[in-house]
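sorry for the late reply, my laptop died twice this morning and i had to redo everyting from scratch. anyway the thing you sent over, i finally got around to it. pasting the sequence first so we're on the same page, its 204 residues, then the predicted structure underneath. double check i copied it right bc i was rushing
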Amino acid sequence: MCTDCPAELARDLDAGFAQMVEHHQDLVFGAARRATGNAADAEDLAQETFVRAYRALRGYDGERRRALHLRGWLPRICMNLGRNRARDAATARAGASPPAPLEAAGEIRDRESRQPERIAERRETSRRWARLVEQLPARYRSAVAMRHVDGLSYPELADALGRPLGTVKSDVHRGVALLRAAYQREELEQRNQQPALRVPEVTR
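ok and here's the structure:
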């Protein structure tokens, strides 16, 4: 996590901004990916997020830049832009397509194991969790993903979502509980759907 970006922004906006983009582009793209549902639109939204951030920073004095908590501030800009886009699109046309599953959430990179079966199994598990996260109510989905996928601290999460600290903690706790319940429900359904083993008859 970058801790010196705010100081660099206060010292030299242009140089500090380039450093900020480098250090936070994955975080912003993750928020954009969840807001848009596809990679192409996410890239566009992430770019617009940094443009808006730069415009805002130009109007801030050095002390205000130095005091910024970027891991909360940048996702908040991204989510606000994403909501505005979704609202404008809904106004312009009816029947928008639902967002694609959040396949990038919590993706597991197995660099040590060379066993294709294990890699495939882990990727399938990752996709499964991503699908379950996507099915959470929006309030909990954002909180859980930003906490456990993007790794935001609770204060950063409260800043990003614009909610009190106690509220975001409760949202994450509730979201994780719903996620576990959904996973256990699927596990039970899969077990119930498996055919019973047929015991061969013993011949005498």
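The CA atoms of residues 110 and 118 lie 9 Å apart.
thats about all i looked at so far, will dig more tmrw
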